[in-house]
Amino acid sequence: MSAIAATFRDLKQKGEGGLIAYVMAGDPTLKHTLQIVDALVAGGADIVELGIPFSDPIADGPTLQRAAGRALEAGTTPRKVFELARAIRRAHEVPLVVMTYYNIVHQMGVEAFCSAAEKSGVNGIIAPDLPIEEASPYKEAAMRHGIDTIFLVAPSTSAVRLEKLLTASSGFVYLVSANGITGARKILQDESITSIQRTASLIRGRAPLAVGFGLSLPSHVRQVIDSGASAAIVGSRFAQIVEQNLDDGHTMLRGLRECAHTLKGGTLFSRATD
Questions:
Q1: What separation in angstroms does the CA of 247 have from each of 152, 219, 241, 251, 263?
Q2: Candidate list 60, 163, 190, 226, residue with the active-site label
């Protein structure tokens, strides 16, 4: 059983949902990122997702685009992110996932990328722009290195396509809560709730379902979990706290820890899944 699968098993046994914290690696520096992860794990994050900064992040909203820009200006590279992952692994046992656009994987080489991920203690990879129809070499390389491959499902994904994505996914399935780009939202739309319920019913417990894009409040997390998801993914809200406190590291880290703690509290009201 993979580390990610074991985490979801343990969460289910405790009757709670998971909090997956997305962090832009290198924002504002790699040293800060290690401290940021420390704060989020202390606050209750169950899984940490490290974003590898990319110059053309098509799925990211303004907040994460600015975070990626700061990370690139700080000299962050994929290999440095793997070095960071190794340092995180020495400090924490939480599963680590990297989110990267496939061009980065292709440039490094699929085998080399998956090998570096394994050696750094990474447990899963998300490549949001990789079509499932072209994913076989990537999936095979990841399997050889014991890495979970996590694919994205959209609200518009058909039942037939969902089955293909479910077959290729391991660790968890990532449901985008709303069409569009990332970014903290104040309201979780009824359409998002319907999408979560539909996807959960189609998956029928065959894989954990994690929901992201726009979640920023404990009430969002609670709604997501109570609608059938196994975890909530939060990123832009954390990036906002980083951006608002670039000149005050103490306040930044305290704010991140407190925010994670509050969001994690939203998972504690979850229903026990079958």
A1: 35, 30, 12, 9, 25
A2: 60
49 is a catalytic site residue:
yes
- Domains observed in the chain: 3-265 (3.20.20.70)
Alpha-carbon distance 242 to 257, whole Å? 12
29: three-class secondary structure by DSSP = coil
Beta bridge partners of 153: 175
Q: Amino acid identity of 207?
A: A
pLDDT in tens, 77-101: 999 999 999 999 999 999 999 999 9
Task: Indicate which residue of 16, 27, 46, 49 is catalytic.
Answer: 49
Q: Are the beta carbons of 186 and 216 closer than 8 angstroms?
A: yes
- DSSP assignment of 176-232, as one string? ESSSS-----S---HHHHHHHHHHHHHHTTSS-EEEESS--SHHHHHHHHHTT-SEE
Q: What is the C-alpha to C-alpha distance for residues 133 and 164, in angstroms, rounded to an integer? A: 9
Asked if 118 is an active-site residue, the reply is no
70 with 27: CB under 8 angstroms?
yes
Q: Which residues pair with 97 in a beta bridge?
A: 49, 124
With 0.90 as the threshold, say if the pTM is over it: yes
